[in-house]
Amino acid sequence: MTRQYNNYGHDQFNIENLQVTPSTNGQELFKKGLKLLNQRNYQQAIDVLNEATEADPSISDAHYYLAIALLRGKKPNKIDGWTIRDIEEKLNAAISEDANSSKCYMLWAIIKHGYYTMNCLIEKSPTSEQLFSYGKSIQPKYAKEIIYHLNDPSNKYWQYLYNKFA
Fold first, then answer.
1. Are 154 and 118 in contact (CB under 8 A)?
2. Number of structural domains found in the chain
């Protein structure tokens, strides 16, 4: 006995050839998230930049700017440990995609020093001093962005940026 399949007037298609195109790609989400961040709309920037990193994890800048957004304009020593770990993961992901990213190293140095040292906690490797040595070659544009989103004059690495670029 053979089984016969009826088409009932519908065209058959091969599911292997079916392509799903997302309505918004990672780059578009990244641009939207960056715009929200520059408006200091931190929560919406976090939401959109998270989507961008999920859509395209290879966009190192999306991870970097997500780390800035997660700070929400606050000093690192005023942020909870879970958020600090999340920020460090984002910066680590950004560096994994772009090992020469001095802006990531500098931001990470500021965050580690601000959270760990200024809260009298022990820094694990890489230390803020090590990260700072990799971040010293930061471009003025990125230094000014960090200063714009983070005001922490008691942090020696932030102070370095401010004295050199503000």
1. yes
2. 1
Per-residue pLDDT at 92: 95
In a domain, 3, yes or no: no
Rg of the chain taking only CA atoms, in angstroms: 22
Report the predicted TM-score, pTM, of the whole model to 2 decimal places: 0.84
- In the chain (166 residues long), the average pLDDT of successive 10-residue segments reads 49 44 78 97 97 95 97 96 97 90 97 97 96 96 96 97 94
7 Cβ neighbours under 8 A, 6+ residues apart: none
**C-alpha closest to that of 104 among 51, 153, 145:** 145
* Separation between Cα atoms, residue 78 and residue 92, nearest integer Å: 21
Between CA 118 and CA 116 the distance in angstroms is 6
We report the CATH number of the domain holding residue 150 as 1.25.40.10
